[in-house]
Structure formats: C-alpha cells, structure tokens
Amino acid sequence: MSVNAVSLEEVTKSFGAVRAVDGLSLDIPQGQTLALLGPNGAGKSTTIGMLLGLTVPDAGRVRVFGGAPSVAVRAGRMGAMPQEGGLISRVTVRELVAFVAGAYAAPLPVADVLATARLTDLAGRRVDKLSGGQAQRVRFALALAGDPDLIVLDEPTAALDVEARREFWDGMRRYAARGKTILFSTHYLEEADEHADRIVVIDRGRVVADGTSREIKRVAALTTVSLSVDGETSWLGRLPGVTMVEIRGRRAHLRTTDSDATVMALAEARAVRDLEVSPADLEDAFVALTGRGAASPSPTTAARGAEEESAA
Ligand SMILES: Nc1ncnc2c1ncn2[C@@H]1O[C@H](COP(=O)(O)OP(=O)(O)OP(=O)(O)O)[C@@H](O)[C@H]1O
C-alpha cells in the first residue's frame, strides 16, 4: 500500500489558554479529495498551518508523504493556497506563473498550469486588473506550479460568488482527475457535499465526524419518519434504524439511521398512517454534530439513547 499523503497523529496546538487543536488524528490516502468542515474557530487553519510546516505542534506528529512537511514543500510535492495573500502586481498572469514555476525543479509547463486553473484566456492580463474570483484562480495556479501531488487550500472560495466558485471547482476537478490529493477547508456545506470524497467535521480542535456526506448524515441520524399513532408506542423504539422516538399528540416522530428499513418494518406492522419522511441535509447533520445553533441532541447522545433503550 502506498504511503498516506497526510498523516496527523494526536496533534495538539494551544495558543495561551486556547486549545486550537486537541489530539487530532487524520490519515489521508493519496488521490483523495477531503473537505475539512467546521465552524469558525474550529481549528481548521491551525491544522492546515501545522500540515504545511508553518506552525509547530505542541504534541503529536505530522507527516506528509511519510516525511516532515518541510521536506514535501522543498521537493515540490505539496502546494498550498493560503486563505489570503497578496499577489505581485504589475506583471501578467503568465509572467507570475512562470516566475513561480521557475522556482521548482520539475514544474508543470506554464500552459498546463494556466489551463488547469482556467486562466488561459487571462494569461496576458495584469494581475492587479483581475476580479476577486480570477485572482483566486491565480493563487490556485501558483499552488499548482510545482506540479504537487498534494494541494492544501484554506477556505479557497470564501468571498467568491456562485459563478466564480463554479469556475474554481472546475479547475480543481481537472487537477483531482490526475490522481492528485486535495485537502480543502470550508464553511460551505454544499461545497463539501459536492466536491469531496470524504468529509471530516472538526469542532473545538477535534474530529467529530469522518465519512462520505451520506455517512455523516447517517451518523447524525437525522432522517425523521413520522406517522399517526394511537395506543401503545413503545415498540416503535425497537424498529430497525430507530435511535429516538418522540410522541407529540397523536403523531410519533422517529429518528432513524435507515429510513428504508424503518418504513419497511412499519409497513409489515401495518402501521403506516399519514407517513412522512423528512431527509436530513448536510446542514442539519453539521449542526447536530457540532451542537451549534440548534437544540438537536448530539449523535453520541442519540446513539447512546438508542443503546440504553434496546438494552432495557
Ligand atoms: N496565532 C494565534 N494566536 C492566538 N489564538 C489563535 C491563533 N491562531 C488561532 N487561534 C485560536 O485558535 C482557535 C482555532 O482557530 P483556527 O483559525 O484554527 O480556526 P478555523 O477553524 O480556521 O476558523 P475560521 O473558519 O474562522 O478560519 C480559535 O479560537 C482562534 O482564536
């Protein structure tokens, strides 16, 4: 098996009394596109800083392609796009890309960089005359110039409008299609859902969920099946997939990790009356996982509730 592109082992970093990253472990195999999703202050930028070798962890180990981050950077194997950062002005896009590519031993041909970042038509434009979205694609191009195997992007599309984001991700997909590894942080749930193979949700410096968007929704157990009931309801908690039962008036609301199995079992029990299935979206899952902004119980609470119920 090939070495992981990224391996973080129990990494911790504090700033004074603030523990920004708290025992975080994460392995990213080569070729994966991973979204690091988390609310403000979750520890995304600090994690990325350690990954890039810009910040030294207090404890734990950071490996990029099996070695120190600085080795991967020097070898041109890791390219980064920081959250912000000025671009040299008064030069054209092509000149700037060629200048940065020239710093690497085995750069990508400039024409390829421009094409991947969708900048071919803007190659002769001066950098200081670009729109925000175009400038962001130039930053992406600079991260690509050394033909890295891993690219790390800290909130690459923050402040871009919908069209600029679409164009940005278009370029990113071309890069990923070449078998490269991508790690990006984002607040945009739909962006993680749409562009990542894997989503790692972090909060307070810890991983709170890790999986495909489908798996994360399942972990959050947020699909709700509701139906009209009368009489005895305790059996509803024993249906497959059900993690929580709430009775409100004459309706039962079942949280389930497997709505298909729950509905089938209800049908077998001839209990389907005014049935409604409300699927979770990633936003609900995120809120439930991080406990921010909603009164939903955390998934661990939900899972524990179900275990206790079935043990009883
Ligand atoms: N250089 C620093 N000095 C002091 N505190 C810091 C420093 N860098 C980060 N922090 C604190 O560490 C915590 C994690 O911050 P970090 O920037 O890693 O989060 P984030 O998930 O990237 O947030 P955002 O999405 O807002 O960029 C926050 O409480 C932040 O205030």
TrEMBL record:
Task: Establish whether keyword Transmembrane is in the entry.
Answer: no
The keyword Nucleotide-binding belongs to this UniProt entry's keyword annotation:
yes
Chief localisation class: membrane
Membrane-protein topology: Peripheral membrane protein
Entry keyword set: Antibiotic resistance, ATP-binding, Nucleotide-binding, Transport
ABC transporter domain boundaries: 6-229
Annotated stretches, region: Disordered = 292-312
Q: Which GO terms describe its molecular function?
A: ATP binding
Q: Which InterPro entries match?
A: AAA+_ATPase, ABC_transporter-like_ATP-bd, ABC_transporter-like_CS, ABC_transporter_ATP-binding, P-loop_NTPase
Q: Give the source's domain of life in one word.
A: Bacteria
Q: Where does the protein end up?
A: Cell membrane
Name assigned to this protein: ABC transporter ATP-binding protein
